[in-house]
Amino acid sequence: MYVSLAIGENVGSVDLSINSLRTETLQNPEGIDVKQPRLSWKINTSISNTYQTAYQILVASSPDLLSPEKADLWNSGRVDSDESVMVKYAGKDLASDTKCYWKVRVWTNHGESVWSEEAYWRVGLLYYKDWKGRWIGFDRAFPWEKISTFPTLGARYFRKEFKADKQVEEATAYIIGLGLYELNINGHKVGDAVLAPTPTDYTQNVKYNTYDITQLVQSNSDNAIGVVLGNGRYFTMRQNYKPYKIKNFGFPKLLFQLVIRYKDGSREVISSNDQWKGTADGPIRNNNEYDGEYYDANKEFDGWDQVGFDDSSWLQAEYVQEPRGDFEAQLNENMKVMQEVMPVSITPLDQNRYILDMGQNMVGWLQLKVRGEQGDTVKLRFAESLEDNGELFVTNLRDAKVTDTYVLKGAEEEVWEPNFTYHGFRFVEVSNYPGIPQLSDFVGKMVYDDIATVGHFETSDETLNQIYQNAWWGIAGNYKGMPVDCPQRNERQPWLGDRAVGAHGENYMFDNVRLYKKWLEDIRLSQKEDGSIPDVAPAYWRYYSDNMTWPGTYLMIANMLFDHTGDTSVLVHHYPAMKKWLDYMATRYMNEDYIVTKDSYGDWVVPPPTIAAGTGQNADVKRPSALISTAYYYYFMEMMSKFARLTGIREDIEAYQVLKDKVGKAFQQEFYQEEGYYGDNKMTDNLLPLAFGMVSESNEQKVFDHLVETIEVKNKGHLSTGLIGTQWLMRTLSDYGRADLALKLATNRTYPSWGYMIENGATTIWELWHGNVAKASMNSQNHTMLLGDLMVWYYEYLAGIRPGDESPGFKAISLQPTFVEGLDYVRASFDSSYGEIGSHWERKGKRIIWKVKVPVNTTAKVVLPQDIVTKVSLDGKILPEGQKEVSLGSGEYEFVF
Question: For position 237, which CATH number holds?
């Protein structure tokens, strides 16, 4: 929300956004269950070096009361502070199902602003007893359905009519629809979310969504509620299959509550009970994330979600057992159709079979437009690539059927898209289409969490740019209320190891803080009483393999969230669970010599030495490494010392430092070789101790030289790292003065490299470096794990944008690009909590022109290259000779050197 802010004679704007304890920069949130939400705002002005000196916040129960004299919930008064992010509400206690309006004004070093426009948040249902309804559903299969390894279970439809016999002031709907739901009021879909709500381990917690439906409820009139339930993750996609491994939660079910406030001050609640009517005999005959959706348009019941529909043949809704998990407001965004993708070609295969090419490996589904006879059945089957003969390549999908089926009702024109499935695909096999399909008959719907793209990055090198685009498509498509590993095969699991460092880079690209806070809670809730943490969380698969790297992602993302937001509450909340896990690992797997002996995966998916060596080979090979597990334990001891200091648990700091020193000494004795390298002299063996600061100053250069020799000589200028090593590769090379070598690795187009993927047609990031030739059983063409620290390197090294050491959350900013030879320009920006940070540099002959942008209410420390021999100018003024650092307030600046 943008509102006017007048400062002196200049007029800018304030971006006013509402924050709760778990949701940063979420505008006008509905149904939060936090008693002390946190509020943020952005100040935009053209006056340089502007910073806030004070603020005043008003919070009221109605817009009419939003004045200093009337604010009935909170008037902060003038508070002398430069805080403008995550300011905690400190007013009256908040009640369930209430709306809070607020606005702010600020004082700056250049004057006072006007009041902002109003914003609001809604308090949800804070207590279990606030839910008046009961859970309804059908806890059984119907005769036309089957429960088997490949189940067939249709959608459940529920409806209820009610009368709003007065003038409606406000109507609010609360819904928990498991596994997935769509809510309709009087024939209109509520909201634009798809595949809602966000997935969880439903034995631990379930999320409710809240909607303001005031405009949809008719005053002094009859109204109708319609809810469709899909299977989602609740009704497991593979029934009775490896029950020791895969969790099953039950049949779809619904809890619903509609709160109506009338203009006369009265209040009415309509909730789910056995007076609702329901059926499973509708058009969605099957829906499954792995296998697709089967839709028979002949089974449609027109007007079922409107008043007057004849539901006499429907069943009475049945009371069912509620899920075991706690009810919680969903603070991360639901998924949404975020983009439409038009196909680029359609090619006939044989009689009545065509291959549609979207031109981009994407995640979502296809909208179909068709004319035909009643009973005609069109099938859409999805894949990421093609066989040499033009057929879909589906072997890498394992047993996922990935097929949507539409049965025509024979209308003049029928337009359809699925409700409760998604696919990872570039190509679609269209079968039995009546007539000759045209490109205009299809639209791809790109689906991911409704979060903004906040980063922009571009360079003079097209390989770097295409890798960035491939990364964007892969990262976005795999945001599914949790970060999943891949969107296409029969897996789609939230593996922890895939995002350990990747999440750090992603945060410069996407506004994903709420998603990752939610995922941290998924991880915490998946922890066993003994302290163990799984490799997949939520633990849909029971993989508690015990290793340092995958579960350690828990600490690394918490650390990233603190550094990028400054929010210590994340650390306070998760500190006990992180400590418990580290104690568990030490008790079970640290020997008397302080070596951590347990690792599960090693440097997962290291590239085979040549393409020939990798052709047809299975990549699912585990190479456990005590070097990796011990190095990571050392690294986490330093991280936990930081967390203990920030959370005030000072008694733990010394214990962590003592244990870190013992582990560090043991690591040197066990793994350092007198030739000057670690372990087996593999890239990852040397990268980790260098990255973690484990190498003595006297040995650093020798170890680094071995790393460089491996790349330049043994690998002929290529990497040989897997998932673990790649997470530290680009930054370590740059930190030790070889950004040029990092750039070579990033721009290579030969195997193994990110550019090799592009050279072989990739439009996302592969799971394997040799993904074009590897055995198909583990060979996703849309993964993000091999990005490693590449996106971090793009933003923090090539562009030089980092949170400052003095103040996390980009309140203080560090600007220190690596002006690496081989690039003519880098243009990057990142929309932080305070506003846009920009770093654009370009070579002009022998000179560099570097433009930076610093948002209001922040400062930036600009670090210039140490080897500059020319004079440096800042906005046309020559800096003193030898000056290498410049402190800047907000504004836009230009350096030339």
Answer: 2.60.120.260
